[in-house]
TrEMBL record:
Pfam families: BAT, GAF_2, HTH_10, PAS_9, Response_reg. Residues 225-277 form the PAC domain. The modification 4-aspartylphosphate is found at D60. SMART domains: GAF, PAC. This is Putative PAS/PAC sensor protein. Residues 1-25 are annotated as: Disordered. It comes from Halorhabdus utahensis (strain DSM 12940 / JCM 11049 / AX-2). Keywords: Chromophore, Flavoprotein, FMN, Kinase, Phosphoprotein, Transcription, Transcription regulation, Transferase. PANTHER family: PHOTOTROPIN-1-LIKE, PROTEIN TWIN LOV 1. Coiled coil: none annotated. The keyword Amino-acid biosynthesis does not apply. Residues 149-222 form the PAS domain. Residues 1-15 have a biased composition (Basic and acidic residues). The keyword Cell division does not apply.
Length: 680
């Protein structure tokens, strides 16, 4: 495929190529010597390809938009060799398998790190930059003397970067009469060893017979030919030779010689073979795990408890066609033990594994390493028939029964490890790096699902953990603001927004309003300060921040803020969380985030029944964000007091709406709140 004189022609196709992570402007900036044009129409793109107006096509694929895979398949019908880079918005097994089947040149999901850079690399590999040698006007060879012409031609042949041979077509067996230096360097044969014999001396037992027959027939028919064949060097090593031969005729049309051009293409052939192997491996892998990942994902959506997750996951992973056995265990950090809760191979009582007593090289040591590092660990010689699948304290090669390979997959969510999933296969070579990467993602999905079902306990039962931590450090925003006030900064509520900001509601002395505003204006972390209500003595202030670490940490583990006490020295944060494990993770993350984080109190509650948190959660699920904000601001600002401490106009202004709209939100929220109260 040739490039245009102005540069490599890139056709960028998709619904909106200019707004994609791999945009037309991005390609122009990062890729050298390219001309990038875009198209949003499928038919137009096909026509431009058929008209040979592109050296490479870069196409988006979205399930609900532009079908880049259909364009790839259409291109392959007429232009099987044209480089096509597919950029899916979401990468799934089905999409990847279809791209491989259609022989995509490269497959770069939009979510890839440095997707633009990967696409530019794919373009550079598929469409090398055209030769930019200096073009100088030289004296035509016909203007030189005959001797000069002869010497120039001989020098050109001798110094050519490709192997050149000339054979005598009039002599028996057509022996070589000339070989250049590149031929000697490529083959290892000296000129005196090559001249006088037929060039078939480069062939050997690994040379394809059909290819040599094609070459022989071309010589017999006095025709040109181009083939790729395996040849042998003088030292016996092999190389791939891209050989082109062409007949040379005299003035009467008689073939007097054959000239051959040889180029070592071993690296290219090995790269092509490697790509073919990788595609075949990917195809087999996708067929192996695609259905499994989809089924487990559906299980995680349907599961209502940790027990459901454990049972259904093991039933699917360990009893399917992909693997031969699986078990799952819960991790207890204080005792550093794993308790096996489900095993696809046995119905034995649960077994507890002590990770602190693991002999080096034992299977339990593999489990301990996976838990400690939070990474998938592979092991071989796994005993598939022992009561706990080979993880019994012995070395992994001690099993007397059926053996294979296995992986330990940690079930993690953020900084918390909830357990492990251990999977076995009879194939000792199973679980390559790509498969382990997929299984690691599956482990994170299971860990996230476990966190979700455990976090539900915070709002559905009184079985919660109440924790108070004290946070200190020079960068605590609320403590900084409190230090500017004469009175207290009394917490009234907090709400996180979708854009990552947090709105705090505080009660302060009226005399401190100016000081608080002045302090907030000096701190770039504060984006807004709004007075919701004001009396002669005090006021309610809304402080909007661009993000607060402890709120992010709590929301990540399902924690619910109960109270915040603030002074100029630090803050004391009281919260509820569903499990001891999540509570411990929250405390540890606070310790890694703040200069000092001290556990003040820890209380477990096991009273059954619906909680106030459950009622609040039910009401919040019925309210829109606007309705909840309107109701919360009315409550904390004294709107419901008599006489009112704030008016609707002030609250409407704080929300950026007109009063009539604010009252609509407030009345709708009041109606839903009253209905929930009487219907509960």
């Amino acid at each position: 495929m040739s490039s245009s004189g102005d540069g490599r022609r890139i056709l960028r196709v998709g619904d909106d190529p200019g707004a994609s992570p791999v945009s037309t402007d991005g390609l122009r900036e990062m890729a050298d010597n390219v001309v990038v044009e875009s198209s949003t129409d499928f038919r137009t793109a096909v026509e431009r390809v058929e008209a040979d107006e592109a050296d490479c096509v870069v196409v988006d694929h979205t399930e609900s938009g532009f079908d880049g895979l259909a364009l790839l398949e259409a291109i392959r019908q007429d232009r099987p060799g044209l480089p096509v880079v597919v950029i899916p918005s979401v990468s799934t097994g089905a999409i990847a398998r279809r791209a491989v089947a259609a022989d995509a040149t490269a497959y770069v999901p939009q979510t890839s790190d440095d997707a633009l850079g990967l696409v530019v690399e794919a373009i550079d590999d598929a469409v090398p930059e055209p030769d930019r040698r200096d073009r100088q006007v030289r004296m035509p060879i016909s203007d030189r003397t005959a001797t000069e012409q002869q010497r120039l031609k001989e020098r050109a042949l001798d110094e050519a970067p490709v192997g050149i041979t000339i054979a005598d077509a009039t002599a028996p067996d057509k022996p070589l009469i000339y070989v250049n230096d590149s031929f000697v360097e490529m083959t290892g044969y000296e000129k005196e060893d090559a001249i006088g014999v037929n060039c078939r001396f480069l062939q050997g037992e690994g040379t394809d017979a059909e290819t040599t027959l094609e070459l022989r027939e071309a010589v017999m028919d006095e025709q040109a030919a181009a083939v790729e064949l395996r040849n042998y060097r003088a030292d016996g090593s092999t190389f791939w030779n891209n050989l082109e031969i062409s007949p040379i005729r005299d003035d009467d049309g008689t073939v007097t010689n054959f000239v051959g051009f040889q180029q070592d293409i071993t690296e290219r052939k090995e790269a092509e073979a490697a790509i073919k192997r990788e595609r075949e491996t990917l195809r087999r892998l996708l067929e192996r795990v695609e259905g499994l990942v989809g089924d487990v994902t559906e299980i995680l959506v349907r599961a209502d408890s940790r027990a459901d997750i454990d049972r259904m996951t093991v039933e699917r992973v360990g009893a399917g066609d992909e693997f031969d056995r699986a078990w799952i265990g819960e991790y207890d950090p204080p005792s550093e033990t794993i308790t096996i809760t489900e095993d696809s191979h046995t119905d034995t009582e649960s077994v507890t594994l002590d990770l602190t007593d693991a002999a080096a090289g034992s299977a339990i040591d593999v489990v301990a390493t996976a838990v400690d590092r939070g990474e998938v660990q592979r092991f071989e010689d796994a005993d598939l028939e022992s009561p706990v699948g080979g993880v019994d304290g012995s070395t992994v090669s001690d099993g007397d029964g059926l053996t294979g390979s296995g992986v330990v997959i940690p079930l993690v969510y953020r900084e918390t490890t909830y357990g492990v999933l251990v999977v076995y296969d009879r194939d000792p070579d199973a679980f390559d790096e790509t498969e382990r990467t997929i299984l690691a993602a599956l482990g994170r999905a299971i860990g996230s699902a476990v966190n979700a079902v455990l976090s539900k306990r915070t709002v559905t039962t009184d079985a919660t953990v109440e924790i108070t931590v004290s946070l200190h450090g020079p960068d605590l925003l609320l403590a900084t603001l409190a230090g500017r006030l004469d009175g207290a900064l009394a917490y009234r509520g907090a709400q996180a927004t979708d854009d990552g900001r947090v709105r705090f509601l505080f009660h302060i002395d009226a005399d401190d309003e100016a000081s608080l505003r002045e302090a907030a204006e000096r701190d770039e972390r504060v984006s807004a300060v709004t007075v919701l209500s004001r009396t002669d003595d005090d006021c309610v202030i809304e402080i909007t921040t661009d993000g607060t670490p402890f709120v992010r940490i709590l929301s990540g583990y399902g924690g619910d803020i109960q109270d915040i006490s603030v002074d100029d020295d630090g803050i004391e944060l009281a919260f509820q969380v569903a499990t001891e494990q999540n509570g411990r993770a929250i405390v540890e993350e606070h310790r890694s985030t703040y200069e000092t984080a001290t556990l003040v109190s820890y209380t477990e509650s096991d009273d059954p029944g619906e909680t106030p948190q459950a009622f609040r959660s039910a009401v919040e699920s019925e309210l829109t964000d606007r309705q909840l904000t309107a109701l919360e601001k009315a409550y904390v600002s004294g709107f419901f007091e008599w006489p009112r401490e704030s008016e609707g106009e002030e609250l409407a202004d704080s929300m950026g709406v007109v009063p009539s709209t604010y009252y609509q939100h407030l009345r709708a929220a009041e109606k839903k709140l009253v209905r929930a109260f009487f219907d509960s």
